[in-house]
Amino acid sequence: MSRPEACAGPRPRALPSVVRVPAMYRPRPHFHFFDPQLRSRYRRDLLQAGLAAAVVLAILFAEEGVTQGVVVVAIASSAFTVFVIPHSVASEPRRVVGGHLVGVGIGMAVSAALTAMAGPSVSATDYRFILAGAGAVGLAVLAMAATDTEHPPAAGTAFGLVHQGVTGGFVLFILSAAVTLALVRALLLRRLRNLM
User: Fold this and answer.
1) Distance CA 145, CA 168 (A)
2) What whole-number distance in Å separates Cα of residue 69 and Cα of residue 85?
3) Cβ-based neighbours of 97, under 8 Å, separated by 6 or more
4) Which run of H or E residues covers position 125?
């Protein structure tokens, strides 16, 4: 027993020389313009993109006359979230509707404060207008985090209401669109898949 190996006890198990990493976590070896998985799932991608377009089209037709860019962009971004990553936390009805509700509340409050401080004719290049828009986004993010209603496009709602001004039509459009998106997601959730 003069050999040191005999005294050392059982040998430790050898570790595998190669650790298998699931494909979704492997780095992509080269640049690609199209998703490599597109060929196998293009029908689902087309279906969900078509659903997103149809729902936004229905919302715009139902709320005719609301074409203010910033407000519509926030809803279009919500449609993207709901139809591209429907199983994510950000697509839950509580977050879609609640996030836009918080965004509307913050946008209305900041818009009212801006009007009270600067008057109704503040220009878009005035530093107070710029600060109010940025402040509305920051406050909306904070309020959504505090109320557990985080929905990234809803920060655009707060900014849009400061930028475009608060009208009953905008508020109704935003909230009805958020409810519509949440309902469509709830009805189709079993058929929708995350596209990312």
Assistant:
1) 26
2) 24
3) 175, 178, 179, 182
4) none
Tokens 């430790």, located at residue: 12
Cβ neighbour number for residue 73 with a 10 Å cutoff: 15
* Cα diameter, the chain: 96
Neighbours of 63 (CB within 10 A): 19
**What is the average pLDDT across 35-50?**
80
Question: Residues of the chain with pLDDT > 90: what percent?
Answer: 41
Reduce the secondary structure of 50-82 to three states and give it as a string: HHHHHHHHHHHHHCCCCCCHHHHHHHHHHHHHH
pTM: 0.75
Every domain of the chain and the residues it spans: 41-188
CB atoms within 10 A of CB 43: 8
| In 63-152, alpha helices (H) | 69-84, 93-118, 127-147
Q: What is the DSSP letter of 89?
A: G
CB atoms within 10 A of CB 186: 11
